[in-house]
Design goal:
Helices cover 74% and strands 0% of the residues. By secondary structure, it is an all-alpha fold.
Length: 193
């Protein structure tokens, strides 16, 4: 099992394709928080996010088993693109746009491990995440989507542009205007993060 924890994503994919299910378990555990959080931020519904998260890994498993994976070691961006596409497909299917809600504090950030922090630091961190999420909710969808894909899914602007069907400059502009809007809201509301 130690080999798997040290292996690259590409080595884990190859090992899974060779029949070793432990490799897939390590791969899922390595990336589940980022993928789930990016889905959850886009759909704003924890239970829907859980369903879509499962669908993402079913699609990943099917693709890997059919030997159709050819992303050359870029597993996380590939998996995040699948997640993003499934979110878009879901909203197309129900013919509605995501609604902006401000649900309970643990809605998005319960997947973040606060570890051995003291209780007051954990509360402050949770409140800070909630404030950021509320600010993200106030942004136009295009700006929010770019910020989520960049900061929560660690995608490059090239990958974001391809995923959102826009130019790299448009993706950069959406990021810039989104961050400027968030800074302005922070100043107007005199918030501290």
């Amino acid at each position: 099992m130690n080999f798997f924890t040290q292996a690259t994503d590409n080595q884990l994919v190859q090992s899974f394709q060779a029949g070793n299910n432990n490799a897939l378990e390590v791969l899922v555990n390595r990336h589940k928080d980022k993928i789930f959080t990016s889905i959850n931020i886009l759909v704003k519904d924890k239970y829907l996010a859980e369903d879509l998260f499962q669908d993402v890994f079913i699609k990943i498993i099917d693709t890997l088993r059919k030997n159709n994976y050819n992303e050359e070691g870029k597993f996380l961006p590939w998996a995040t693109r699948i997640a993003h596409n499934l979110c878009v497909d879901h909203f197309r299917k129900v013919k509605r746009t995501p609604t902006i809600t401000t649900s309970d504090d643990s809605d998005i950030f319960e997947v973040i491990n606060v570890g051995a922090h003291s209780a007051d630091r954990a509360i402050m961190k949770c409140q800070s995440h909630d404030r950021v999420r509320q600010l993200l909710d106030l942004l136009p969808e295009e700006q929010r989507e770019v910020i989520v894909l960049r900061h929560y899914a660690d995608l490059s602007f090239r990958e974001i542009a391809a995923m959102t069907n826009c130019s790299i400059n448009t993706a950069l502009g959406r990021m810039r205007y989104g961050l400027l809007s968030m800074r302005k809201m922070i100043a107007e509301k005199q918030m501290s993060l």
